Request: fold
Amino acid sequence: MRFRVIRVACNARGILKTMNARIAFAVIPCLALLLACSESKPASAAASPVAAPAAGSTATQQPAAAPPAQPQTPAGPARPAMRFNAERTMQYTREIVAFGPRYNGTAALEKVRQYLLAHLKDDQVEQDSFTADTPAGKQHMVNIIAKFPGSKDGIIVVASHYETNYWLRNIHFVGANDGACTSAMLLELANQLRGRKLEGYSVWLVWDDGEESVSGQWSDADSLYGTKHLAAKWQQDGTIKKIKGLFIADMLGGSDLHVLRDTNSTPWLEDLVYQAASDLGYQSHFFQESGAEEDDHLPFARMGVPVSDLISVPFGYNDAYHHTVEDTLDKLSTRSLQISGETVTEAIRLLNQR
Ligand SMILES: [Zn+2]
Reply:
């Protein structure tokens, strides 16, 4: 049922549109705005960073910020805002795309892993390697996790898949929007987090493998290999309980950015994302429509983790670019990457205040 309403190139996403979705989401943003207004947020909040600078930075010379609205937010010196660099994100996207199709078993996929690891060489990185049983046999997969320790007990996770679809191996599918640009976005988030003393929760960035189905017939068994593996591992080692919120970034670079409000995500975390977007003046790109997404957040949601799947679908008119040879760099915009990257950054900041 989930694939009947919007025609998609494959079964990889389920979009359940309700007839009154537009009406419903004309109301919900208003409610969110009312909530945001009632919290008397300081005017400078949107410009505040998620992280404090490392000792010795020039930040302390800046004028003091307005006092935080929420009592649990520690007062601190003014800090320069994190400046999400969308141009650099686009450059990373170009470089990832240049490796060519990166489906399971290709040299290109291994090169992308090495590319990501090279960018993270100064960070605390963990590789979660495993063998997945797929309809095409056993496949080697690797989740890459970069950990940026905070001062508060708890973890905020931002994840993106990086591989392209095995079942699209016979076409030149490079997933510029689907996998590449959000992997690039995480590299840029790492740039922002690196070398700062995080005053909030730890931030873990996850480049997960095996999000896509292998057969092209999306099912619980044939999809989300990387995040199912990671969620099980984190449940076993106790990490799951420490996660305060998990954001999935997927297909956020398309020039027509319209992030869906996902009904499989945690409502309060979706509200927080909407507040983050509104703080920055980007709310028109968010939640005009709703849908039930099956994406990398689901394995964590099933374990009780607050999750938010940030995905802009359809991609192109009638989803024409999704999982086709049309998913190329020319369909992306730096502006969309800026909006997405800043909104995720602001959402992290708001989650730290909660
Ligand atoms: Zn996809």
Summary: The longest strand covers residues 196-208. The two ends are 37 Å apart (CA to CA). The domain at 21-39+85-353 is CATH 3.40.630.10 (Aminopeptidase).
